[in-house]
Here is the input.
Amino acid sequence: MILNAIIDDITHQIRVPDALLNQAEDFYTQLDRDMAGGWQMSRTWVNTPAAHQRAQIVADKLLTALEAGNEKLGLLMAGYLLARLPGLVAVAFDTQGDMHNHQFTFATTDEITDDAVATMPAAPERRAGLSKIEAMAQAGREVTPVFRVGRGWRFSVFDHITQCWQDAPLTATEIEANTLRQTVFKARYDTLCQE
Here is the structure.
């Protein structure tokens, strides 16, 4: 997954491996517990930071990591933001020292759906004699059910060209992920059923 970190007019693309989101979940849970006890947000003490405020706190840690060149901490903080804010595509930092002004940009559901369908791997060439039932079974083997990643949802599609599984974009809810999966499943099924 990619998070665009915008500092002034410069955009840094942070590539966060999907595996990191699962591996660091215990760390992220502990971070949430620490912040729930209260946090100094710039000039204001917040007794119980809400989810948006926790994201601003972590964004501030990400900014500090980027400025210090601490790549490991930067990946961890970017991973937290991607795990806790499904659909997040960018964070624009306030460089004047007020973390309340860090801004987040999210992909719309339509953008996620259109982009995901466009980037999902194509099915293999149709096999001779593949019936509709066989095509449905084959599509079922090549498009996984939705699964949880952090606080988001996604599914995977098998790419016959690379012989690897490709992950769909992360969505905020299971319903959004299932809607997207149905679209990709139907496209795969239709390709397998072509006369």
